[in-house]
Amino acid sequence: MPMIRVEMFAGRDADQKRALARELTDAFIKTCGGTPESVQIVITDVEKSHWASGGTLYSDQ
After folding, report:
1. I want to staple 59 with a disulfide (CB 3.0 to 4.6 A). Which of 21, 28, 33, 48 is the partner?
2. Torsion sign across C-alpha atoms 27, 29, 33, 34
3. Residue 11 backbone dihedrals phi, psi, to 5 degrees
4. Helix residue ranges per DSSP H, 1-61
5. What Cα–Cα distance (Å) separates residue 42 from each residue in 38, 51, 55, 59, 61?
6. What is the pLDDT of residue 42?
7. For residue range 11-60, what is the model confidence (pLDDT) as tens digits?
8. In angstroms, rounded to a whole number, what is the distance separating the alpha carbons of residues 61 and 57?
9. Which tens digit of pLDDT belongs to each residue from 31-45?
10. Catalytic one among 2, 12, 46, 49?
């Protein structure tokens, strides 16, 4: 059972997440085979104050 994990800044609505899940599933099936039911997707919303790059929080940029 393939697992796709997506971590992204918080702020997308449910419709955007539904579309992302659909597109990721379709891309996986097209590329790797399998069935849509076998593809598991976990979407984690992360606040900008909890994510840093280059030693700087994104909330400070």
Report:
1. 48
2. positive
3. 135, -15
4. 14-32
5. 13, 18, 26, 24, 27
6. 98
7. 999 999 999 999 999 999 999 999 999 999 999 999 999 999 999 999 99
8. 7
9. 999 999 999 999 999
10. 2
Give Cβ neighbours of residue 56 (< 8 Å, ≥ 6 apart).
Answer: none
Through-space distance between the first and last CA atoms of the chain, rounded to whole angstroms: 38
Cα(44)–Cα(15) distance, rounded to whole angstroms? 15
pLDDT at 19: 98
Q: What phi and psi values does residue 8 have, to the nearest 5 degrees?
A: -150, 160
Considering the entire predicted model, what is its pTM? 0.89
Q: Is 2 a catalytic residue?
A: yes
- Cα(24)–Cα(40) distance, integer angstroms: 10
- Token pair listed for 13: 């609505």
